[in-house]
Amino acid sequence: MNLLLDKICLVAEPSDTEAGDSGSPLLSKIDDKNWVQVGVLYGGGGCSEKHPFSTTQHRSLYTPIDCDWISRVTNDEVKCKGW
Q1: What's CA 72's distance to the chain center, in Å?
Q2: Most C-beta atoms within 10 A of its C-beta, which of 1, 19, 21, 29?
Q3: 83 within some domain
Q4: Model-wide pTM > 0.85
């Protein structure tokens, strides 16, 4: 498993994640009224490349939502769409 291929690396400006934030959702707005959760905060750091538009070094790692796992552990009671 390649850690960075299985994670979402996010440059968080103007805010950043702090200790204790692990497990927080990463949301994406899909239209004027709806948001979807696309990830769960895994931790800070771990992204080695500096983002070209970032003025800071703050990066956060998120684990993408695993729809197969959610379906399996909820016995198909919860449905989600992969991204």
Answers
A1: 21
A2: 21
A3: no
A4: no
